[in-house]
């Protein structure tokens, strides 16, 4: 199970536990307030009950819109009435306990408002609730001078500031988490687009080449059209399989593969590797007339020494390079694909190169097969970023007189 799935389960369990816990505490507050009313005074107990019940309601129903601001307003009104119209200052123990419990409820509500209310509402409500929490002690004893009363209230306002800072910090963490989730989803979408470009475009360009060949030879050699149509069908199936595999890889990368599908390790799609390069080259060879040579050590010892991410990147380099050959040099007489260790480097590296000869201009009336309507190298640009992320380099340029070569150096460390 992925980390994101575990976090979601933990969040759901926490939300389901908060509601029942708040309900139990509320059931305890009501009888306690009724019992403390005769000794502490109802003018002290009622604001206390309103503050505590309001804080519990906000904690359990914070996911509903306007619940936290409305609850804060009700509690603020109740606390203000308790301060303005309460009993004369008294140091009775029961009254002091009720007042302190009310202050605790106000501070909890300040934290919840700072965490869940709207930004503007949070500023106003936290200020009002903080003032009420810092002045509630005046019900017990009024200092002899106004300056001392202000100093006492300012000191106890530090609790409200700390509560607001706690709620604001939690809000900031949640905002960062949401932003990180959006960035992760955006990164996944870009990765999916890159995979579709690298894998599917290779097969689709092959279909285009075969269809063009069928049009050319259809009139003069109709007996060769059927094999071409069969190759087109095979390339189409391969393209569909590449799309399915890419989507499944995206789903399983964050642990979101549905239960019952791909539950076993054998059914889980894995990234392409060195062993898949031969299939890519074979399909490229079958869809064209170029002499394609492959230099690849397919022994298990060599394949096992190459990290999976490096092998996957090498596969994508070959796919993208052959796709560009098919698009822009469809009549090239030869193509060489080499995937071998690079002995000229100090550290162990994997050197991947795809080289094609100069396209022929004498065949097919000087034209060429390929995707003539598409230009640009967005695939190589994105691939270069991936190679650089692995600490490697990707270069492409003219080889010989009119040929072309794409070379990637991928560190194995």
UniProtKB/TrEMBL annotation:
GO molecular function: ATP binding; phosphorelay sensor kinase activity; protein dimerization activity
Protein name from the UniProt record: histidine kinase
Top-level EC class: transferase
TM regions (residue ranges): 17-36, 42-60, 67-85, 97-116, 123-142, 154-173
The enzyme's E.C. designation: 2.7.13.3
Record GO cellular component, one term: membrane
Keywords tagged on the record: ATP-binding, Kinase, Membrane, Nucleotide-binding, Phosphoprotein, Transferase, Transmembrane, Transmembrane helix, Two-component regulatory system
All copies of domain Signal transduction histidine kinase subgroup 3 dimerisation and phosphoacceptor, residue ranges: 189-253
Species annotation: Streptomyces griseus subsp. griseus (strain JCM 4626 / CBS 651.72 / NBRC 13350 / KCC S-0626 / ISP 5235)
The reaction(s) this protein catalyses: ATP + protein L-histidine = ADP + protein N-phospho-L-histidine
